[in-house]
Amino acid sequence: MKRLVTGILAHVDSGKTTLSEAMLYTAGEIRRLGRVDRGDAFLDTNEIERDRGITIFSKQAVMSFGGLELTLLDTPGHVDFSTETERTLGVLDYAILVISGTDGVQNHTETLWQLLIRYKVPVFIFVNKMDISQSERSDIMSVLKSRLSDGCVDFTDKSTLDEEAAMCSEELMNSYLENGAAGVKEIRNAIRERRLFPCYFGSALKNDGVSELLSGIDEYTKTPVSGESFGAKIFKISEDEQGQRLTHMKITGGVLRVRDVLNGCRGREKWSEKVNQIRIYSGARYTAADEAPQGTVCAVTGLTQTYSGEGLGMETDSAPAVLEPVLSYSIILPEGADTAKSLALLKKLEEEDPQLHIIWNEQLREIHVQLMGEVQLEVLQRIIAERFGLDVSFGRGSIAYKETIAAPSEGVGHYEPLRHYAEVHLLLEPAERGSGLHFYSECSEDELDRNWQRLILTHLEEKQHIGTLTGSPITDMNITLIAGRAHQKHTEGGDFRQATYRAVRHGLRMTESVLLEPWYEFRLEIPQSCVGRALTDIQRMSGRFDPPQTSDEHAVITGEAPVSEMSSYHNEVISYSSGTGRLICLPKGYEECHNTEQVLEEIGYDCDGDIENTADSVFCSHGAGFNVKWDSVRDYMHIDTGISFEDEPDEPTAEERVRSYIGSAADDGELMRIFERTYGAIKSDKYHAMNTRREQTKKSAPKIKAVPIPKGPEYLLVDGYNIIFAWEDTKKAAESSLDAARSMLIDKLCNYRGYKQCELILVFDAYKVKGGVGSVETVGNISVVYTKEAETADMYIEKTAHELGRKRRVRVATSDALEQMIILGSGAVRISANEFREEVDAAEREIRDFIRHM
Hints:
The protein is α+β, with helices and mostly antiparallel strands. The N and C termini lie far apart (about 85 Å).
């Protein structure tokens, strides 16, 4: 029998739980259909879920249908509990995405679709509530294809199934051409490869279309390939009614048996624990099993060190979750409650939902928690009351900021009160945005014993270290142990904890910190008449946007913006679009804060006053310990690693730029010809003699102020014909010959690029050339682009500026006002034709001045 794990996902109120009931009923697992509104649904086992009528916790049900044993994982539909949904995706073989026939593809539906793409889960689509929908199936299919994927195919329409399926993969097309039909094997492969997404229609409440969905899953799915050795993926931690800790896992290989000993790591610490019981849950009930073969989803007792996302006996994807809470709240305990005990109890909830990030803020003397929204806040309040008897309340919510560093630094931590000793040196380096924290050791074991090194790495991982700007958690860094020292008699484990914490803090104080805030990726659908208002709003919110896409009377704008600015923008969209606009937001991750100074002032974090997170060190002299402030620690430290962080070299002077350009032109015939057409011939012996007198020339040359070069690689995109007709000399040349004007502009830009040392792309319209495929050629030292048919220079520049602007500094030279506005939204710097001419002329003057002096 084929064994599969399938998750069921949907936007809230799409009928997801009702479909789960209908599937269980159709498969014969339950005798009557429960209902959410009656509070007797088979999978709504929690009292809070029954009261609210929504799914809050993922649940499991097992059913058999045809030749299929299906484990169904029901997930929350409300956006506030979507992190629970995301944790489940890692163990799915297939997913069922439920879409309401009355509401269509909603905001959260697209979020779920992006998660399914991220986790590479094959999808079956069930369009529910067709008994009350006013939409035709063909219209719904059009929306699914445009909003989700062209691979969405109606599997209930046998007249078009084969032809439409054939368009989804080459294998299916070959099968269709050879046999006149899409083969079952080929359909299975296309679904598994996420090229084809079968769509079914019906009404879960009336049990209509459910049998067809189950039959489709039975016929068109494949059993995942697994190994013989044991492997398991943990996706959830919970407690049963007796308080026993349950580890929910999917067996990905081999067999798990009762009394088996499992091994894993919690941070740097290895653990071995015995499986006491294996439970196969279906709704609120479970059956105890002696063993769980591959493909089984089970809950295990006896394990106390496991965590969600962990792989046992297998490698797991360590990439961070896509969905992350962006709001932080303080938890206000009832009067008389023991803070330490309460924190320990609340930490149990963090094990069950790692995204809660429950931490103790020492400076504010408060417990903080991170959440997705108001509904989760209310549910958490009730859970805490029922589980721990604590009647808590919450402070006002605020954005959950993070901090990182802008440049590497060495952090030193020394802890040496009387009869104690430890010194730690850490290298802190900025890492890729969104990568989190990673810890390494490059310390010699001759200098520091391996056990001490492992202890230091454990101390790095055990604590949520906070930054120096706002006291927010640090992230996106590589922290490497590069040196350390212990004392043969006086060093204890706690000494290295103190030294390690101080070294991290010292490293943060020794470099520039950067405040990060959460950002959204958004999709804004509005009437065309509202585009101007929307673009203005996005710029006001410090957002970025792609060029608007228009069709009929509507426009779609996609882009990115800070959560703090856009979180309440939905109501504005509804207002100014008269209810026809729609805003869809998906967490993008963290980026540099757009209003750092304002946030620092509002939070008012006192770095020096945070004595629990000190960067100072403790040294010993004459039998007594004494404190050394962080900015003097390097004068007292016992180890010198020899690491230094020198300032970047000064920006090159105008003379150095010109010298560099002439030197590169001397080795390039084409470039030298362009140079000499403008400035005249330069004798090679004079140039080489000049090189031998470099220092003397440098001292005696006139001081010419150089145009500043922006830090990091810079790209300059130039709208060719726009510039030609904006500059008087090239415009006049174009009246006689457009080719001559192009050549004149190319010569000027080759000289400018040689002086400026940027990457220059000159773009010319060729969109009216019938059948033109576009071309890119290198002339001198610049790239000259001729666009393809139906693509204007504006379109090419907008697209390229957006792509390059993600990681590079980009400027665009054009006098087109509309293009300038769009370029600004892409994150590029706009420069007018007149401003650009001034820069080009300034570069030419400095080159001529240098030549005259030489």
